[in-house]
Every structure is written in structure tokens, then in C-alpha cells.
């Protein structure tokens, strides 16, 4: 059974940085892709970043490209989202999601393509 737990959220000032972590268990690190999504209050869930199976591709939403970086440590089954130059518009609950044999070949990766989800972690960007 796949279990995903996010951590690292909190209150950050505009222009600041934070790194979110995603711990995955019950997955074969050679098979799984991971994506980060976010959902602001009253808004639809939005794909932020996607790192494909065996790191074949990494893609980002246009709104975060150049500011956010996703990476993973396959030996630890950990995935990270480094967020720099944060803006108030980045305020949201951030979710980590996993799916097997998914290439993340473009910056279109709908939430419906991912079957395993964490509970989310809140990131608030405010002064």
C-alpha cells in the first residue's frame, strides 16, 4: 500500500524560500513518478511540478518555472520541492502525488493521472 506524507510547509515572507518534503513508502523507486500540486482556497487543484519515472523528465507549471525546483532521492524514497522567490499567489495547500510508470513528458499532468496522494501541507506567503 502506497503511503505519502508531506512536510515542510509554514508561513514564509514574500521573496523568501521554503523546501517541502514528500516521504513515500510502499513504492518501487524505479517505477514511480511524483508530482506536486497545490490548491488555493476556492480554486481548482493545480499541477506545479512533475518528475517522471527514473527521472526521465522534469516539468513545471509556467507560473513557477524558474522559481521552483523538484528533485528526489531514490535511495530514501524522498521527493523535494524547493520554492524560491515566493509570492503571495503561491499560498496554497501543497500535495505530493505518485503514479507508476508516468513520464511527466510535458507540463500538462492532470491530478486525475495520479492515484496516490498525501494529506497536504499548507504554505502561506505573507508579510
Molecular structure report:
The protein is mainly β and 127 residues long. The protein has no helices and eleven strands. Strands 2, 4, 5, 6, 9, 10 and 11 form a seven-stranded mixed beta sheet that branches. A four-stranded antiparallel beta sheet has the order 1-3-8-7, with no helix packed on it. Strand 5 and strand 6 (58-60) form a beta hairpin. It is globular and about 40 Å long. The termini are far apart. The mean pLDDT is 96.
Structural class computed from helices and strand pairing: mainly beta
Span between N and C termini? 40 Å
What is the N-to-C succession of helices and strands? EEEEEEEEEEE
Residue runs with pLDDT of under 50 for 5 or more positions: none
From the alpha carbons, calculate the radius of gyration and give it in angstroms.
13 Å
Strand percentage lies at: over 45%
Number of strands: 11
Looking at how many chains there are and whether they match, the oligomeric state comes to single chain
Main beta-sheet annotation = 7 strands, mixed
Kindly state the percentage of residues in helix.
under 10%
How many H/I helical runs? 0
Overall shape: globular
Mean pLDDT: 96
